[in-house]
Amino acid sequence: MKKLINDPRHLVREVLEGLADTSPGLALLDTENVLIRWDDGPVAERPVAVLSGGGSGHEPGHAGYVGAGMLSAAIAGDVFTSPSVDAVLAAIKAVAGPRGAVLIVKNYTGDRLNFGLAAEMASAQGIPTEIVVVADDVALRDIVAPERRRGIAGTVLVHKIAGSAAARGLPLAEVTALARKAADSVGTMGVALGACTVPSVGAPGFTLEADEIEIGLGIHGEKGVERAPLQPADALVDRLIDTILEDRKLGAGQRVAILVNGLGSTPPIELTVVARRALARAREFGLLVERLYCGVYLSALDMPGCSISILPLTDTLLAALDAPTEARGWNSDGRVAPERHVVAAPQTAGTGMDHPPGPQADAIRAAVEAVATALIAHEPTLADLDSRAGDGDLGASMVRGAEAIRALPDQAFNTPASACAAIADALRRAIAGSSGPFYAVGLVRAAGVLQDKAAASGQDWSDAFTAAVEAVEQLGGARVGNRTMVDALRPAAEIWAQKLAGGAEPSAAFEAAVTAASDGAEATAAMKPSLGRSAYLGDRALGVRDGGAVAVSLWLKAISDQLSAS
Protein backbone atom coordinates (compact mmCIF):
# COMPACT_ATOMS: atom_id res chain seq x y z
CA MET A 1 0.00 0.00 0.00
CA LYS A 2 1.53 3.31 -1.08
CA LYS A 3 1.81 6.02 1.58
CA LEU A 4 3.27 9.52 1.57
CA ILE A 5 5.33 8.94 4.68
CA ASN A 6 8.94 8.48 5.66
CA ASP A 7 9.82 6.04 8.43
CA PRO A 8 6.58 4.84 10.13
CA ARG A 9 8.38 5.02 13.47
CA HIS A 10 8.71 8.80 13.09
CA LEU A 11 5.31 9.45 11.54
CA VAL A 12 3.55 10.86 14.61
CA ARG A 13 6.36 13.27 15.45
CA GLU A 14 6.55 14.51 11.87
CA VAL A 15 2.80 15.13 11.81
CA LEU A 16 3.03 17.22 14.97
CA GLU A 17 6.03 19.08 13.60
CA GLY A 18 4.05 19.93 10.48
CA LEU A 19 1.17 21.26 12.56
CA ALA A 20 3.48 23.32 14.76
CA ASP A 21 5.22 24.72 11.68
CA THR A 22 1.99 25.76 9.97
CA SER A 23 -0.09 26.88 12.96
CA PRO A 24 0.99 30.08 14.70
CA GLY A 25 0.39 30.00 18.42
CA LEU A 26 1.15 26.28 18.84
CA ALA A 27 4.25 24.59 20.19
CA LEU A 28 5.66 21.10 20.69
CA LEU A 29 7.05 19.59 23.85
CA ASP A 30 10.64 18.63 23.15
CA THR A 31 10.62 15.13 24.59
CA GLU A 32 6.97 14.12 24.22
CA ASN A 33 4.56 13.94 21.32
CA VAL A 34 2.40 16.72 22.73
CA LEU A 35 1.10 19.77 20.87
CA ILE A 36 0.18 22.68 23.12
CA ARG A 37 -1.37 26.09 22.80
CA TRP A 38 1.55 28.42 23.45
CA ASP A 39 0.79 30.65 26.43
CA ASP A 40 3.58 32.68 27.98
CA GLY A 41 1.28 34.45 30.43
CA PRO A 42 1.49 33.93 34.19
CA VAL A 43 0.55 30.37 35.11
CA ALA A 44 -1.66 31.59 37.94
CA GLU A 45 -3.89 33.45 35.48
CA ARG A 46 -4.53 30.58 33.12
CA PRO A 47 -8.11 29.38 32.69
CA VAL A 48 -9.04 25.75 33.12
CA ALA A 49 -7.00 23.69 30.65
CA VAL A 50 -8.85 21.28 28.37
CA LEU A 51 -6.78 18.37 27.07
CA SER A 52 -7.48 15.35 24.94
CA GLY A 53 -5.62 12.83 22.88
CA GLY A 54 -5.13 9.17 22.24
CA GLY A 55 -3.72 7.15 19.42
CA SER A 56 -2.80 8.95 16.23
CA GLY A 57 -4.45 8.21 12.90
CA HIS A 58 -7.60 10.24 13.66
CA GLU A 59 -6.49 13.49 12.10
CA PRO A 60 -7.52 16.25 12.36
CA GLY A 61 -8.26 14.88 15.82
CA HIS A 62 -6.84 15.53 18.25
CA ALA A 63 -4.04 17.95 17.46
CA GLY A 64 -6.20 19.84 14.95
CA TYR A 65 -8.38 21.03 17.81
CA VAL A 66 -5.61 22.71 19.80
CA GLY A 67 -6.28 26.42 19.81
CA ALA A 68 -8.08 29.16 21.68
CA GLY A 69 -11.68 28.13 22.27
CA MET A 70 -10.99 24.38 22.15
CA LEU A 71 -8.11 22.29 23.45
CA SER A 72 -5.14 23.54 25.39
CA ALA A 73 -3.10 20.47 24.42
CA ALA A 74 -3.31 17.22 22.49
CA ILE A 75 -1.33 14.15 23.47
CA ALA A 76 -0.52 11.88 20.54
CA GLY A 77 0.25 8.20 20.91
CA ASP A 78 1.47 6.01 18.10
CA VAL A 79 -1.13 5.11 15.48
CA PHE A 80 -4.16 3.64 17.27
CA THR A 81 -2.11 3.36 20.50
CA SER A 82 -2.72 5.25 23.74
CA PRO A 83 -0.04 7.76 24.77
CA SER A 84 1.96 7.10 27.89
CA VAL A 85 1.15 8.34 31.38
CA ASP A 86 4.28 10.50 31.31
CA ALA A 87 3.21 12.17 28.06
CA VAL A 88 -0.22 12.99 29.48
CA LEU A 89 1.23 14.28 32.74
CA ALA A 90 3.77 16.41 30.90
CA ALA A 91 0.97 17.93 28.84
CA ILE A 92 -1.08 18.77 31.95
CA LYS A 93 1.88 20.42 33.63
CA ALA A 94 2.74 22.36 30.47
CA VAL A 95 -0.65 24.04 30.05
CA ALA A 96 -2.57 23.90 33.34
CA GLY A 97 -2.41 26.34 36.20
CA PRO A 98 -3.98 26.29 39.66
CA ARG A 99 -7.49 26.44 38.17
CA GLY A 100 -6.95 22.87 36.99
CA ALA A 101 -7.50 20.72 33.93
CA VAL A 102 -10.16 18.60 32.27
CA LEU A 103 -9.10 15.52 30.33
CA ILE A 104 -11.52 14.39 27.62
CA VAL A 105 -10.97 10.69 27.07
CA LYS A 106 -12.46 8.29 24.57
CA ASN A 107 -13.65 5.12 26.23
CA TYR A 108 -10.83 2.70 25.45
CA THR A 109 -9.01 0.76 28.15
CA GLY A 110 -5.55 2.12 27.36
CA ASP A 111 -6.72 5.71 27.26
CA ARG A 112 -8.70 5.41 30.47
CA LEU A 113 -5.77 3.85 32.31
CA ASN A 114 -3.07 6.23 31.14
CA PHE A 115 -5.10 9.41 31.27
CA GLY A 116 -6.64 8.33 34.57
CA LEU A 117 -3.29 7.72 36.25
CA ALA A 118 -1.89 10.98 34.88
CA ALA A 119 -4.91 12.83 36.32
CA GLU A 120 -4.27 11.29 39.75
CA MET A 121 -0.62 12.26 39.63
CA ALA A 122 -1.40 15.81 38.47
CA SER A 123 -3.93 16.27 41.25
CA ALA A 124 -1.43 14.99 43.78
CA GLN A 125 1.06 17.56 42.49
CA GLY A 126 -1.33 20.46 42.99
CA ILE A 127 -3.15 20.62 39.65
CA PRO A 128 -6.77 19.59 40.20
CA THR A 129 -7.64 17.40 37.24
CA GLU A 130 -10.98 15.90 36.18
CA ILE A 131 -11.74 13.27 33.55
CA VAL A 132 -14.68 13.24 31.15
CA VAL A 133 -15.15 9.92 29.39
CA VAL A 134 -16.92 9.84 26.03
CA ALA A 135 -18.74 6.58 25.24
CA ASP A 136 -21.00 7.62 22.37
CA ASP A 137 -21.01 4.52 20.12
CA VAL A 138 -24.64 3.43 19.98
CA ALA A 139 -23.79 0.51 17.68
CA LEU A 140 -22.79 -1.41 20.82
CA ARG A 141 -26.17 -0.89 22.50
CA ASP A 142 -27.08 -4.59 22.38
CA ILE A 143 -23.56 -5.89 23.08
CA VAL A 144 -22.11 -4.08 26.09
CA ALA A 145 -23.31 -1.92 28.97
CA PRO A 146 -23.54 1.83 28.25
CA GLU A 147 -20.45 2.59 30.31
CA ARG A 148 -18.38 0.21 28.16
CA ARG A 149 -19.24 1.67 24.78
CA ARG A 150 -16.48 3.11 22.65
CA GLY A 151 -15.77 6.80 22.31
CA ILE A 152 -15.85 7.93 18.69
CA ALA A 153 -16.61 11.08 16.68
CA GLY A 154 -18.98 12.65 19.20
CA THR A 155 -15.83 13.38 21.18
CA VAL A 156 -15.15 16.35 18.89
CA LEU A 157 -18.38 18.04 19.98
CA VAL A 158 -17.35 17.53 23.60
CA HIS A 159 -13.99 19.17 22.81
CA LYS A 160 -15.76 22.22 21.46
CA ILE A 161 -18.16 22.55 24.35
CA ALA A 162 -15.53 22.08 27.04
CA GLY A 163 -13.12 24.43 25.28
CA SER A 164 -15.74 27.12 25.03
CA ALA A 165 -16.63 26.81 28.70
CA ALA A 166 -12.99 27.11 29.69
CA ALA A 167 -12.49 30.11 27.40
CA ARG A 168 -15.39 31.84 29.19
CA GLY A 169 -13.46 31.53 32.43
CA LEU A 170 -15.78 29.04 34.11
CA PRO A 171 -14.37 27.14 37.09
CA LEU A 172 -13.24 23.52 36.86
CA ALA A 173 -16.46 22.06 38.24
CA GLU A 174 -18.63 23.88 35.71
CA VAL A 175 -16.40 23.09 32.74
CA THR A 176 -16.42 19.45 33.77
CA ALA A 177 -20.18 19.37 34.26
CA LEU A 178 -20.89 20.89 30.89
CA ALA A 179 -18.49 18.51 29.15
CA ARG A 180 -20.04 15.52 30.90
CA LYS A 181 -23.52 16.65 29.95
CA ALA A 182 -22.47 16.65 26.30
CA ALA A 183 -20.59 13.37 26.57
CA ASP A 184 -23.51 11.63 28.27
CA SER A 185 -26.08 12.73 25.71
CA VAL A 186 -24.32 12.52 22.34
CA GLY A 187 -24.82 9.38 20.26
CA THR A 188 -22.78 8.22 17.27
CA MET A 189 -22.85 5.36 14.77
CA GLY A 190 -20.68 4.64 11.75
CA VAL A 191 -20.46 2.60 8.57
CA ALA A 192 -17.35 1.55 6.62
CA LEU A 193 -17.05 0.66 2.96
CA GLY A 194 -13.60 -0.84 3.48
CA ALA A 195 -10.68 -1.16 5.85
CA CYS A 196 -7.89 1.24 6.67
CA THR A 197 -4.17 0.53 6.44
CA VAL A 198 -1.95 1.07 9.47
CA PRO A 199 1.36 2.46 8.12
CA SER A 200 3.54 0.10 10.14
CA VAL A 201 1.53 -2.90 8.89
CA GLY A 202 1.16 -1.90 5.25
CA ALA A 203 -1.97 -3.94 4.54
CA PRO A 204 -5.71 -3.41 5.16
CA GLY A 205 -7.00 -4.62 8.51
CA PHE A 206 -9.76 -6.72 6.94
CA THR A 207 -11.21 -7.43 3.54
CA LEU A 208 -14.66 -6.86 2.14
CA GLU A 209 -16.25 -8.08 -1.04
CA ALA A 210 -17.20 -5.43 -3.58
CA ASP A 211 -20.83 -5.50 -2.41
CA GLU A 212 -20.19 -5.64 1.36
CA ILE A 213 -19.95 -3.02 4.10
CA GLU A 214 -19.34 -2.97 7.85
CA ILE A 215 -21.96 -1.31 10.03
CA GLY A 216 -21.26 -0.04 13.53
CA LEU A 217 -17.47 0.18 13.53
CA GLY A 218 -15.07 2.03 15.78
CA ILE A 219 -12.22 4.30 14.74
CA HIS A 220 -9.26 1.92 15.02
CA GLY A 221 -9.66 -0.07 11.84
CA GLU A 222 -11.68 -2.78 13.52
CA LYS A 223 -14.67 -4.50 12.00
CA GLY A 224 -18.18 -3.36 12.79
CA VAL A 225 -20.90 -5.16 14.68
CA GLU A 226 -22.46 -6.38 11.44
CA ARG A 227 -21.41 -7.13 7.88
CA ALA A 228 -24.16 -6.20 5.45
CA PRO A 229 -24.78 -5.78 1.71
CA LEU A 230 -23.94 -2.44 0.16
CA GLN A 231 -26.97 -0.17 0.17
CA PRO A 232 -27.83 3.27 -1.22
CA ALA A 233 -26.55 6.17 0.86
CA ASP A 234 -30.03 7.22 1.97
CA ALA A 235 -30.84 3.76 3.34
CA LEU A 236 -27.61 3.66 5.34
CA VAL A 237 -28.14 7.15 6.71
CA ASP A 238 -31.67 6.26 7.76
CA ARG A 239 -30.40 3.25 9.67
CA LEU A 240 -27.71 5.26 11.48
CA ILE A 241 -30.09 8.10 12.34
CA ASP A 242 -32.89 5.79 13.44
CA THR A 243 -30.59 3.80 15.73
CA ILE A 244 -29.17 6.91 17.37
CA LEU A 245 -32.59 8.45 17.95
CA GLU A 246 -33.96 5.25 19.46
CA ASP A 247 -30.96 4.80 21.74
CA ARG A 248 -30.82 8.43 22.84
CA LYS A 249 -34.61 8.60 23.11
CA LEU A 250 -34.88 11.70 20.94
CA GLY A 251 -38.11 12.75 19.34
CA ALA A 252 -40.21 15.54 17.93
CA GLY A 253 -39.40 19.01 19.19
CA GLN A 254 -35.91 18.15 20.40
CA ARG A 255 -33.23 20.64 19.34
CA VAL A 256 -30.13 18.88 18.03
CA ALA A 257 -26.75 19.33 16.37
CA ILE A 258 -25.60 16.73 13.84
CA LEU A 259 -22.02 15.86 12.97
CA VAL A 260 -21.43 14.02 9.68
CA ASN A 261 -17.88 12.77 9.95
CA GLY A 262 -15.72 11.26 7.23
CA LEU A 263 -13.50 8.37 8.28
CA GLY A 264 -10.58 9.36 6.07
CA SER A 265 -11.03 8.57 2.40
CA THR A 266 -14.67 9.40 1.74
CA PRO A 267 -14.72 12.47 -0.53
CA PRO A 268 -16.76 15.59 0.20
CA ILE A 269 -19.16 14.77 -2.63
CA GLU A 270 -20.29 11.64 -0.76
CA LEU A 271 -20.30 13.23 2.69
CA THR A 272 -22.55 15.97 1.37
CA VAL A 273 -25.03 13.38 0.11
CA VAL A 274 -24.98 11.85 3.60
CA ALA A 275 -25.47 15.25 5.25
CA ARG A 276 -28.41 16.00 2.97
CA ARG A 277 -30.21 12.82 4.00
CA ALA A 278 -29.24 13.11 7.67
CA LEU A 279 -30.87 16.52 7.82
CA ALA A 280 -33.98 15.32 6.02
CA ARG A 281 -34.33 12.16 8.14
CA ALA A 282 -33.95 14.06 11.41
CA ARG A 283 -36.61 16.51 10.29
CA GLU A 284 -38.92 13.64 9.36
CA PHE A 285 -38.83 12.68 13.05
CA GLY A 286 -39.68 16.25 14.03
CA LEU A 287 -36.24 17.12 15.36
CA LEU A 288 -35.16 20.75 15.19
CA VAL A 289 -31.74 20.62 13.56
CA GLU A 290 -30.02 23.83 14.58
CA ARG A 291 -26.48 22.93 13.49
CA LEU A 292 -25.04 20.39 11.08
CA TYR A 293 -21.30 19.96 10.65
CA CYS A 294 -19.98 17.99 7.69
CA GLY A 295 -16.39 17.01 6.98
CA VAL A 296 -13.52 14.96 8.33
CA TYR A 297 -13.39 15.55 12.07
CA LEU A 298 -12.18 12.26 13.56
CA SER A 299 -10.84 9.85 10.96
CA ALA A 300 -9.58 6.29 10.99
CA LEU A 301 -6.57 6.83 8.74
CA ASP A 302 -7.71 6.12 5.17
CA MET A 303 -10.89 4.22 5.92
CA PRO A 304 -13.75 4.81 3.48
CA GLY A 305 -17.00 5.49 5.29
CA CYS A 306 -18.58 7.89 7.70
CA SER A 307 -20.23 8.28 11.07
CA ILE A 308 -23.12 10.40 12.23
CA SER A 309 -23.33 11.98 15.67
CA ILE A 310 -26.39 13.63 17.21
CA LEU A 311 -26.18 15.91 20.23
CA PRO A 312 -29.33 17.17 22.00
CA LEU A 313 -29.04 20.93 22.46
CA THR A 314 -29.80 23.48 25.11
CA ASP A 315 -29.20 27.19 24.81
CA THR A 316 -25.94 26.75 26.72
CA LEU A 317 -24.66 23.93 24.53
CA LEU A 318 -25.61 25.75 21.35
CA ALA A 319 -23.79 28.86 22.51
CA ALA A 320 -20.73 26.75 23.23
CA LEU A 321 -20.78 25.25 19.75
CA ASP A 322 -21.14 28.70 18.22
CA ALA A 323 -18.39 30.31 20.30
CA PRO A 324 -15.30 31.38 18.34
CA THR A 325 -12.22 29.17 18.20
CA GLU A 326 -8.82 29.36 16.55
CA ALA A 327 -8.54 25.59 16.23
CA ARG A 328 -8.12 24.84 12.55
CA GLY A 329 -9.78 21.46 12.66
CA TRP A 330 -13.08 23.10 13.54
CA ASN A 331 -13.89 24.69 10.20
CA SER A 332 -17.65 25.23 9.98
CA ASP A 333 -20.30 27.24 11.75
CA GLY A 334 -22.76 24.41 11.13
CA ARG A 335 -25.68 26.64 10.25
CA VAL A 336 -28.42 25.11 8.11
CA ALA A 337 -31.14 26.62 5.97
CA PRO A 338 -34.61 26.42 7.55
CA GLU A 339 -35.74 24.74 4.35
CA ARG A 340 -34.34 24.00 0.92
CA HIS A 341 -34.93 26.88 -1.46
CA VAL A 342 -35.56 25.82 -5.05
CA VAL A 343 -36.27 28.52 -7.60
CA ALA A 344 -37.25 28.26 -11.22
CA ALA A 345 -34.31 28.38 -13.62
CA PRO A 346 -34.49 31.07 -16.31
CA GLN A 347 -35.36 29.76 -19.75
CA THR A 348 -32.14 29.34 -21.71
CA ALA A 349 -33.44 27.72 -24.88
CA GLY A 350 -34.34 29.77 -27.92
CA THR A 351 -35.26 27.17 -30.50
CA GLY A 352 -37.75 29.09 -32.69
CA MET A 353 -40.29 26.29 -32.64
CA ASP A 354 -43.09 28.73 -33.43
CA HIS A 355 -42.39 28.59 -37.19
CA PRO A 356 -44.72 26.43 -39.29
CA PRO A 357 -43.28 23.20 -40.72
CA GLY A 358 -41.14 23.84 -43.80
CA PRO A 359 -40.67 21.57 -46.80
CA GLN A 360 -37.53 19.98 -45.32
CA ALA A 361 -38.95 19.20 -41.87
CA ASP A 362 -39.44 15.47 -42.46
CA ALA A 363 -36.05 15.08 -44.12
CA ILE A 364 -34.28 16.89 -41.31
CA ARG A 365 -36.03 14.72 -38.72
CA ALA A 366 -35.05 11.56 -40.61
CA ALA A 367 -31.42 12.66 -40.86
CA VAL A 368 -31.29 13.42 -37.15
CA GLU A 369 -32.77 10.02 -36.34
CA ALA A 370 -30.09 8.40 -38.50
CA VAL A 371 -27.41 10.28 -36.59
CA ALA A 372 -28.83 9.14 -33.26
CA THR A 373 -28.98 5.52 -34.40
CA ALA A 374 -25.38 5.60 -35.62
CA LEU A 375 -24.01 7.14 -32.43
CA ILE A 376 -25.80 4.63 -30.23
CA ALA A 377 -24.63 1.72 -32.39
CA HIS A 378 -21.01 2.87 -32.19
CA GLU A 379 -20.92 3.55 -28.45
CA PRO A 380 -18.44 0.68 -27.80
CA THR A 381 -16.09 1.95 -30.51
CA LEU A 382 -16.10 5.52 -29.24
CA ALA A 383 -15.75 4.42 -25.61
CA ASP A 384 -12.76 2.23 -26.50
CA LEU A 385 -11.00 4.96 -28.46
CA ASP A 386 -11.57 7.50 -25.70
CA SER A 387 -10.45 5.14 -22.94
CA ARG A 388 -7.17 4.54 -24.77
CA ALA A 389 -6.40 8.22 -25.06
CA GLY A 390 -8.70 9.98 -22.59
CA ASP A 391 -11.17 9.28 -19.80
CA GLY A 392 -13.40 6.84 -21.68
CA ASP A 393 -16.69 8.75 -21.45
CA LEU A 394 -17.13 9.74 -25.10
CA GLY A 395 -19.28 6.75 -26.06
CA ALA A 396 -21.68 7.33 -23.16
CA SER A 397 -21.74 11.06 -23.89
CA MET A 398 -22.69 10.50 -27.52
CA VAL A 399 -25.46 8.11 -26.45
CA ARG A 400 -26.85 10.72 -24.06
CA GLY A 401 -26.75 13.23 -26.89
CA ALA A 402 -28.47 10.82 -29.27
CA GLU A 403 -31.24 10.15 -26.78
CA ALA A 404 -31.67 13.87 -26.15
CA ILE A 405 -32.16 14.74 -29.82
CA ARG A 406 -34.49 11.79 -30.29
CA ALA A 407 -36.64 13.21 -27.51
CA LEU A 408 -37.08 16.57 -29.25
CA PRO A 409 -40.65 17.35 -30.36
CA ASP A 410 -41.53 17.28 -34.05
CA GLN A 411 -41.85 21.07 -34.22
CA ALA A 412 -38.17 21.39 -33.37
CA PHE A 413 -37.45 20.32 -36.96
CA ASN A 414 -39.82 22.72 -38.69
CA THR A 415 -36.99 24.74 -40.23
CA PRO A 416 -33.23 24.26 -40.67
CA ALA A 417 -32.54 27.01 -38.12
CA SER A 418 -34.99 25.67 -35.53
CA ALA A 419 -33.49 22.21 -35.91
CA CYS A 420 -29.94 23.44 -35.35
CA ALA A 421 -30.97 25.57 -32.37
CA ALA A 422 -33.04 22.81 -30.76
CA ILE A 423 -30.31 20.21 -31.22
CA ALA A 424 -27.74 22.65 -29.79
CA ASP A 425 -29.88 23.15 -26.72
CA ALA A 426 -30.42 19.39 -26.29
CA LEU A 427 -26.74 18.51 -26.64
CA ARG A 428 -25.63 21.32 -24.36
CA ARG A 429 -27.86 19.94 -21.64
CA ALA A 430 -27.20 16.25 -22.24
CA ILE A 431 -23.46 16.01 -22.86
CA ALA A 432 -21.01 16.82 -20.11
CA GLY A 433 -17.36 17.65 -20.60
CA SER A 434 -16.10 19.41 -23.73
CA SER A 435 -18.19 17.70 -26.43
CA GLY A 436 -21.46 19.31 -25.38
CA PRO A 437 -20.24 22.92 -25.58
CA PHE A 438 -18.38 22.31 -28.84
CA TYR A 439 -21.39 20.82 -30.59
CA ALA A 440 -23.68 23.44 -29.12
CA VAL A 441 -21.59 26.42 -30.19
CA GLY A 442 -21.27 25.06 -33.69
CA LEU A 443 -24.99 24.44 -34.05
CA VAL A 444 -25.87 27.84 -32.61
CA ARG A 445 -23.59 29.48 -35.19
CA ALA A 446 -25.13 27.35 -37.95
CA ALA A 447 -28.63 28.32 -36.83
CA GLY A 448 -27.69 31.97 -37.28
CA VAL A 449 -26.60 31.34 -40.88
CA LEU A 450 -29.83 29.47 -41.62
CA GLN A 451 -32.12 31.98 -39.92
CA ASP A 452 -35.37 32.82 -41.76
CA LYS A 453 -34.92 30.05 -44.33
CA ALA A 454 -37.91 27.75 -44.63
CA ALA A 455 -35.70 25.47 -46.72
CA ALA A 456 -31.93 25.45 -47.15
CA SER A 457 -30.00 24.89 -50.36
CA GLY A 458 -26.84 22.86 -50.62
CA GLN A 459 -24.85 26.09 -50.48
CA ASP A 460 -26.76 27.18 -47.38
CA TRP A 461 -25.94 23.93 -45.59
CA SER A 462 -22.29 24.20 -46.60
CA ASP A 463 -22.10 27.80 -45.37
CA ALA A 464 -23.75 26.82 -42.09
CA PHE A 465 -21.34 23.90 -41.65
CA THR A 466 -18.32 26.12 -42.29
CA ALA A 467 -19.60 28.66 -39.80
CA ALA A 468 -20.10 25.89 -37.25
CA VAL A 469 -16.53 24.64 -37.71
CA GLU A 470 -15.18 28.16 -37.26
CA ALA A 471 -17.14 28.49 -34.02
CA VAL A 472 -15.69 25.24 -32.69
CA GLU A 473 -12.17 26.33 -33.61
CA GLN A 474 -12.64 29.71 -31.95
CA LEU A 475 -14.06 28.24 -28.74
CA GLY A 476 -11.48 25.50 -28.31
CA GLY A 477 -8.48 26.92 -30.13
CA ALA A 478 -7.90 23.68 -32.06
CA ARG A 479 -6.63 23.52 -35.60
CA VAL A 480 -5.97 20.67 -38.01
CA GLY A 481 -3.08 18.62 -36.68
CA ASN A 482 -3.94 19.04 -32.99
CA ARG A 483 -5.66 15.64 -32.97
CA THR A 484 -9.20 16.74 -32.14
CA MET A 485 -12.63 16.72 -33.78
CA VAL A 486 -11.43 19.63 -35.90
CA ASP A 487 -9.27 17.19 -37.85
CA ALA A 488 -12.50 15.76 -39.26
CA LEU A 489 -14.58 18.95 -39.30
CA ARG A 490 -12.22 21.33 -41.08
CA PRO A 491 -11.34 19.06 -44.06
CA ALA A 492 -15.04 18.30 -44.53
CA ALA A 493 -15.96 21.98 -44.54
CA GLU A 494 -13.24 22.93 -46.98
CA ILE A 495 -13.85 20.19 -49.53
CA TRP A 496 -17.63 20.74 -49.34
CA ALA A 497 -17.21 24.43 -50.15
CA GLN A 498 -14.61 23.73 -52.85
CA LYS A 499 -16.76 21.16 -54.66
CA LEU A 500 -19.77 23.47 -54.68
CA ALA A 501 -17.66 26.35 -55.93
CA GLY A 502 -16.43 24.10 -58.73
CA GLY A 503 -19.96 23.33 -59.88
CA ALA A 504 -20.44 19.90 -58.31
CA GLU A 505 -23.91 18.65 -57.52
CA PRO A 506 -24.85 19.28 -53.87
CA SER A 507 -25.07 15.54 -53.13
CA ALA A 508 -21.66 14.87 -54.66
CA ALA A 509 -20.13 17.79 -52.78
CA PHE A 510 -21.51 16.46 -49.52
CA GLU A 511 -20.23 12.94 -50.29
CA ALA A 512 -16.78 14.43 -50.75
CA ALA A 513 -17.11 16.14 -47.38
CA VAL A 514 -18.01 12.84 -45.70
CA THR A 515 -14.96 11.16 -47.22
CA ALA A 516 -12.72 14.03 -46.13
CA ALA A 517 -14.00 13.75 -42.57
CA SER A 518 -13.33 10.02 -42.52
CA ASP A 519 -9.82 10.51 -43.90
CA GLY A 520 -9.18 13.25 -41.36
CA ALA A 521 -10.29 11.02 -38.50
CA GLU A 522 -8.02 8.21 -39.70
CA ALA A 523 -5.09 10.60 -39.91
CA THR A 524 -5.33 11.44 -36.21
CA ALA A 525 -3.84 8.06 -35.32
CA ALA A 526 -0.47 9.35 -36.51
CA MET A 527 -0.74 12.69 -34.69
CA LYS A 528 0.85 13.53 -31.38
CA PRO A 529 -1.92 15.27 -29.37
CA SER A 530 -1.42 18.86 -28.30
CA LEU A 531 -4.90 19.75 -27.00
CA GLY A 532 -7.48 18.03 -24.83
CA ARG A 533 -6.94 15.28 -22.27
CA SER A 534 -5.05 13.08 -24.73
CA ALA A 535 -2.32 15.77 -24.77
CA TYR A 536 -1.28 14.50 -21.34
CA LEU A 537 -0.31 11.17 -22.92
CA GLY A 538 2.10 12.54 -25.49
CA ASP A 539 3.56 9.77 -27.69
CA ARG A 540 1.48 7.15 -25.87
CA ALA A 541 -1.56 8.30 -27.84
CA LEU A 542 0.07 7.52 -31.19
CA GLY A 543 -1.64 4.76 -33.12
CA VAL A 544 -5.07 5.51 -31.69
CA ARG A 545 -7.63 7.52 -33.64
CA ASP A 546 -9.12 10.52 -31.89
CA GLY A 547 -12.58 9.59 -30.65
CA GLY A 548 -14.04 13.04 -31.27
CA ALA A 549 -12.91 13.06 -34.88
CA VAL A 550 -14.25 9.55 -35.42
CA ALA A 551 -17.62 10.60 -33.97
CA VAL A 552 -17.80 13.44 -36.52
CA SER A 553 -17.09 11.02 -39.37
CA LEU A 554 -19.78 8.64 -38.11
CA TRP A 555 -22.60 11.16 -37.93
CA LEU A 556 -21.72 12.75 -41.25
CA LYS A 557 -21.76 9.27 -42.83
CA ALA A 558 -25.15 8.57 -41.20
CA ILE A 559 -26.61 11.74 -42.76
CA SER A 560 -25.18 10.81 -46.13
CA ASP A 561 -26.61 7.30 -46.00
CA GLN A 562 -30.03 8.66 -45.01
CA LEU A 563 -30.06 11.18 -47.87
CA SER A 564 -29.08 8.49 -50.35
CA ALA A 565 -31.85 6.20 -49.15
CA SER A 566 -34.60 8.84 -49.27
Architecture overview:
It is a single chain. The chain is α/β, with parallel strands linked by helices and 566 residues long. The chain folds into 2 domains: 8-196 and 209-322, Dihydroxyacetone kinase, domain 1 (Rossmann fold, 3-Layer(aba) Sandwich), CATH 3.40.50; 361-565, Serine Threonine Protein Phosphatase 5, Tetratricopeptide repeat. It is 44% helix and 13% strand. The chain has 17 helices and 12 strands. It has helices at residues 11-22, 85-95, 109-124, 154-167, 172-185, 233-248, 268-284, 315-322, 361-377, 379-389, 394-406, 416-430, 435-449, 458-476, 486-501, 506-523, 547-565, and strands spanning 26-28, 34-37, 49-56, 73-79, 101-106, 129-134, 187-192, 212-215, 226-229, 255-262, 288-295, 305-312. The strands form 2 sheets. Strands 1-2-4-3-5-6 form a 6-stranded mixed beta sheet, sandwiched between helices. Helix 11 crosses helix 12. The longest helix is centred in the last third of the chain and has 19 residues, at 458-476. The protein is elongated and about 105 Å long. The protein starts with 10 loop residues before the first helix and ends with a helix.
Q: Identify the overall geometry.
A: elongated
Q: In CATH, what is the class of the largest domain?
A: Alpha Beta
> How many strand elements?
12
The CATH architecture designation of the largest domain is: 3-Layer(aba) Sandwich
Helical content (DSSP H or I, runs of 4+)? 40-55%
Domain DhaK: 7-330
Organism: Devosia elaeis
GO molecular function: ATP binding; glycerone kinase activity
Domain DhaL: 362-561
Write the layout of secondary structure elements.
Elements: H1 11-22, E1 26-28, E2 34-37, E3 49-56, E4 73-79, H2 85-95, E5 101-106, H3 109-124, E6 129-134, H4 154-167, H5 172-185, E7 187-192, E8 212-215, E9 226-229, H6 233-248, E10 255-262, H7 268-284, E11 288-295, E12 305-312, H8 315-322, H9 361-377, H10 379-389, H11 394-406, H12 416-430, H13 435-449, H14 458-476, H15 486-501, H16 506-523, H17 547-565
Parallel strand pairs: 3-4, 3-5, 5-6, 10-11
Antiparallel strand pairs: 1-2, 2-4, 7-8, 7-12, 8-9, 10-12
